[in-house]
Amino acid sequence: GLNRLVNRSKNPVGAHKEITGYENIDKIIDIDQSPIGRTPRPNPATYTGVFDIIRELFSTTPESKMRGYKPGRFSFNVKGGRCEACSGDGIIKIEMQFLSDVYVPCEVCKGKRYNRETLEVKYKGKSIDDILSMTVEEALKFFENIPR
């Protein structure tokens, strides 16, 4: 129902009496297990733009400033901070010829997507991987004092 009100969706609507308080909602995104964006790499944090803010926060830590790290260092899509063994995917594809391909965690980064130097940088005691591993509820609590 809310999707129909905000996005003028034609999708079927479940039974409901009334929807109120939607006036300040400008967009609704239905998230399922389909790839987000144009490639399978983005996660909800990248798609919503929250990850840009998180990368900026990491780049302002004393350790990042000392090392000369910019926000791009904390992207798993570009060289520098990502694990080069898996190109920031955190997994390695093993082609099985006549069977379905198998994906295993990267042996170098252990699935964390970043190189050791990048993971050494902490924001409030957490690495960039720790942040990406949080649930939405955990992240809301962790970043509750960040204005935005």
UniProtKB/TrEMBL annotation:
GO biological process: DNA repair
Location, primary (coarse class): cytoplasm
UniProt keywords, alphabetically: ATP-binding, Cytoplasm, DNA damage, DNA excision, DNA repair, DNA-binding, Excision nuclease, Nucleotide-binding, Repeat
Coiled coil spans: none
GO CC terms, sorted: cytoplasm
Compartments where located: Cytoplasm
Taxonomy, superkingdom: Bacteria
Record-linked Gene3D superfamilies: ABC transporter ATPase like domain, P-loop containing nucleotide triphosphate hydrolases
Family label: Belongs to the ABC transporter superfamily. UvrA family.
Protein name from the UniProt record: UvrABC system protein A
Record carries keyword Transmembrane: no
An example molecular function term from Gene Ontology annotations: nuclease activity
